[in-house]
Design a protein that fits this description.
This protein folds into 2 domains: about 110 residues, Lipocalin (Beta Barrel); about 70 residues, OB fold (Dihydrolipoamide Acetyltransferase, E2P) (Beta Barrel), CATH 2.40.50.500. The protein is about 15% helix and about 45% strand. It is built from 3 helices and 14 strands. The radius of gyration is 20 Å and the shape is elongated. About 25% of the residues are buried.
Length: about 210
Amino acid sequence: MKKHLVIIGAITLLVCIGLSGCTSPTSGILGEWSLISYGDLDNLTSALPEVNTSIQFKTDHTFSGNVGCNTFAGDWRITLDRGISFRNIVSTDMYCEKTWDQEVAVLGLFSKNTLLQLHWEDNDTMTITNNTSAVKLTRFIQGTGTIQYIDLEGGFYGIIGDDQEHYDPLDIPSGYQQDNLRVEFKARLAPNQNRIHMWGKLIYILEIQQLSP
């Protein structure tokens, strides 16, 4: 009996190794994400820049979100081939002309009850696709850092994160435009990263507060 248990344990270990870790696909997707782009896989449309989007994957295998003016929720599962499937999706049903195409594309992909593929650009960026349509998401940015005046291209205020990442806010409040100000912030990555500064990641500030000295 002990020998059988050892063999079964070894097989389980090999399966885990083959999948690059038994828990990593699930744990990697947990948390809050914002929409970068959607639509045709070969010609994705950038998410509306002025619309705050959020999709949150929870530990109980439920998810909820809003990518326009309607909220939605449902269940999610990571498949054995490291893909993802969605079930039991419900949503509110308001028509909002400005965000309609964006919402239809995201919920349309999630609601087809088919096995979808997950492609990881890095630990913070993933694409969910059926090989024809796709939704690209990026993890929300949360952290602490220091605001600095950057004397480039006419000058602007940026945030140097404590992880040494550079963030170029598109909407930093005027009261926070101070050199060496320590802040805690939450932000989402801008769908379009093209800007003349070329200094750091373009972000939209969602929450920011000054840290005590």
